[in-house]
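Ring-1,2-phenylacetyl-CoA epoxidase subunit PaaA
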Amino acid sequence: DDPQALAEFQARIDRGERIEPKEWMPEGYRKTLIRQIGQHAHSEIVGQLPEGNWITRAPTLERKQILLAKVQDEAGHGLYLYSACETLGVTRDELFEKLHSGAMKYSSIFNYPTLTWADMGAIGWLVDGAAIMNQVPLQRTSYGPYARAMVRICKEESFHQRQGYSIMMKMAQGTPAQKEMAQDALNRFWYPSLMMFGPSDAESVHSTQNMAWKIKINTNDELRQRFVNETVPQAEYLGLTVPDEHLRWNDDKQGYDFSEPDWDEFFEVLKGNGPCNEERLGARRKAWDDGQWFREGLSAYADKQATRRTA
Ligand code: 3HC
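Structure:
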């Protein structure tokens, strides 16, 4: 890239201007956006699987309707994000191909199993809570289509988080066995939720450049700290215990000191060795293969319509 063009581009970012699809951008900026937005889109779609697992087993009709709506929202989020990604010159088919071949990632969190109904609560409360913490600042990200997609996504995520907390509240105030299920779900999802923010700042390869480009607004550790600060009082309100014996309020930093997640586990999950990686990717690949006849039908129909119009 031409140094003069790069400097002008950076100056636009520094002035807080939005970059729009047809405008010039450095190749690195375009590539990293495709990586991040694509990974985010994949996370929404793969994220449907652990919860989809519980739709048929929701304890009441109302909970079933709510969960169904939530899982459907995730599909919508995936679609806005794939569309935002396509404005960068990549096709949706290419993105799917990269997901299916393992060349592109999706969030580590969705490689953990959902064993009980309380996990629906923990996912809404913690996983969607972490997602919001990360995504609210992204409404101010420098790439226009991504920033705009985030506005609606964040509104919906906030509903998702509340529905999760509502499940946790019901369980925590229920029978001792239900409360125990809620505690168990918190125990299992706490550290994987902390991992969602990415590796520690020292290990984060993309943060410096992406923050300069305002693709990222905060560092991984900043957001993780904010998440812990907000979530611990919510756990206390539920009467549940965060599974961290080193958790302490630190007056000096006006935040909690807490234990780091097991980063070896995190990197193993990223490499494909988490508890459900194979199952999740297998389900996505199967959905793609099973949909082949439908995509072909749609294309054939579109071709027919186009021929009719020109005839
Ligand atoms: N899961 C999987 N991969 C992760 C990860 C995670 N939790 N955290 C980091 N990584 C990967 C990065 O992608 C990068 O790998 P790559 O170079 O092969 O792509 C590597 O680990 C190093 O991490 P960095 O900190 O350098 O990477 P980033 O600067 O991209 O920061 C991020 C990671 C904070 C996740 C950032 O990409 C981001 O903010 N992404 C947008 C938000 C997003 O993707 N959210 C998905 C979460 S869940 C969701 O949206 C569904 C909701 O409905 C619950």
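The mean pLDDT is 96.
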